[in-house]
């Protein structure tokens, strides 16, 4: 077997504040044939996600920083073109984490075989992937949502938020979402939210109070936080007794070069006996089977529907796609198609 | 029966910031004989507690604000002098909430009979009272402390904190305490803490890191927060995976007229999958039997010992005592003896 020509994004320096073009480089390279136990994959679609900003920084967070001068990582779906491991034959459609490149060599053990050719690959990156399961775990395990709860979610048109809106409605909650444009607000309502607002339209605390009044609620039982900052303070302000705040992300501060002050009303967590809890998906792999089962059935029923933004430009456009997603230009799951998902010519 | 002369502290205006003498008034009054279902009590010792500051303010917190122009409330131990209810006979030693006065008329249903004449009344206000049970509930139910945990507690020489130190040591934790003077730090060490520091000696984050190094620990499993502010931010900074922060009080901001910014590092709660939870004793009355059982046995064994500050001046000194407690001039449970705990002349 021969090497194949490929392009990949390598991290050249650790961004301070907003990532810049000079922090990365698109490199032309040759991907060798797979060695024993590995497979070579032609990638079809890759994901860009907010957490990647954290891994580009050098600080020890929950995940290893991306090494400098190597290709970055991203959840990606592709087709196996060459296999040196019988468990993942040529022609398999697989999900793996070796994205930010056109062709990848991946250990067979790191490939998840995708059986359902009828399900769009992007769904494996979205509803059935990290964002979908993050919404599920945050709502059911951390916030312990129940029918009748009033649930507020920020970035409600985002990959996680748009799933939170739909799951919360499915379990019988009243749902309020915030988003960053009129179009996004319309989408959030369309997904089933009982109320939604554009956070640019005034102080979040006022907008949230208005939304609560609109659904005849006196406060929140659950806040699913994707942004931190002003949203978090506003949510604490109206949390009800025994409220639960699931801390999933804080996109309002990811690009801050200096620490931002936190909410000024934490005393309310005492008065309301409220709980605020951070979580990461890696602690909840045991929830996966139940999640996939439930979500696949919701998708089949049409009870939950995928929301995607496909950025154009293939691998060349991936960096702009990542920054566009961070800047809020996308709705739902932001993906970057790299090549056609053609049916395999050979294979099983 | 005749009325008895008594003095009582009434709230005249709602304090802004630090309470002032002009916010209250010591009033000479006549306490009538008890009506049906009530008893009249000569009070021996009353408690002054941080939460009273909140009830003096007009804001709706977790507890009703004290009404203006009426006597305030405080946990108090006294002897029944006149009874119009057979369940609480004359001569009974009782715990009730109608303090800030020398004589009280109290519904029999609001009196807790204190059976053990050998236990000092102040213990019923401290180790066996609200502060003791607050320490117990916060550690066992909210922070779910376990043997081997590294526990940090602020206001560690205070009524709650000094009990947290002792309970945490009893269950096998490593304990670090912070307090506001060299004498208090010495007391905290004497109560069994493995490390203690005076928070005036530098940035709390540095002092806490030093204390952790001193006990060979890399971070905290539990932070029992009595003060908020800089302490809370410092604790979040070094919280370990799955850490628990029990929010009990925020004395650093009780007297703030304007909201203070919160910790700037809440993102760490996500990275560390940490939980921060407020609590109030009223939700945990079902823990009372187990708590009293355990604490009474620890007190009898000498495994946990009472720490009290008795303010002088009787009822006249109660206002100064309250402010002294807020200002940190007391250690352990701050109490105000009102009259001798004489053996009853009549009674059972």
Topology:
2 copies of one chain form a homodimer.
Chain A: E1 4-11, E2 24-31, E3 38-47, H1 51-56, E4 76-83, E5 93-96, E6 103-107, E7 112-113, H2 121-125, H3 130-142, E8 150-153, H4 159-170, E9 174-179, H5 182-190, E10 195-198, H6 204-214, E11 220-225, H7 229-237, E12 239-247, H8 267-271, E13 275-278, H9 288-301, E14 308-310, H10 318-326, E15 333-337
Parallel strand pairs in A: 8-9, 8-11, 9-10, 11-12, 12-13, 14-15
Antiparallel strand pairs in A: 1-2, 3-4, 3-6, 3-15, 4-5, 5-7
- How far apart the termini of chain A lie comes to 20 Å
Domain count of chain A, please report it: 2
Strand fraction of chain A: 15-25%
CATH class of the largest domain in chain A: Alpha Beta
Strand element count of chain A: 15
State the gist of this model:
The structure is a homodimer of 348-residue chains. By secondary structure, chain A is of the alpha/beta class. The first copy, chain A, has 10 helices and 15 strands.
What does this 3D model show about the protein?
- The structure is a homodimer of 348-residue chains.
- Chain A has ten helices and 15 strands.
- The first copy, chain A, is an alpha/beta fold and 348 residues long.
- Chain A has two domains: 155 residues, Alpha-Beta Complex (Quinone Oxidoreductase, Chain A, domain 1), CATH 3.90.180; 155 residues, NAD(P)-binding Rossmann-like Domain (Rossmann fold), CATH 3.40.50.
- In chain A, strands 3, 4, 5, 6, 7, 14 and 15 form a seven-stranded mixed sheet that branches.
- In chain A, helix 7 links the parallel strand 11 and strand 12.
- Chain A starts with a strand and ends in an 11-residue tail after the last strand.
- Chains A and B meet through helix 8 and strand 13 of A and helix 8 and strand 13 of B.
- Chains A, B: This is Putative oxidoreductase.
- Chains A, B: InterPro entries: ADH-like_C, ADH_N_2, ER, GroES-like_sf, MDR_fam, NAD(P)-bd_dom_sf.
- Chains A, B: Keywords: Oxidoreductase.
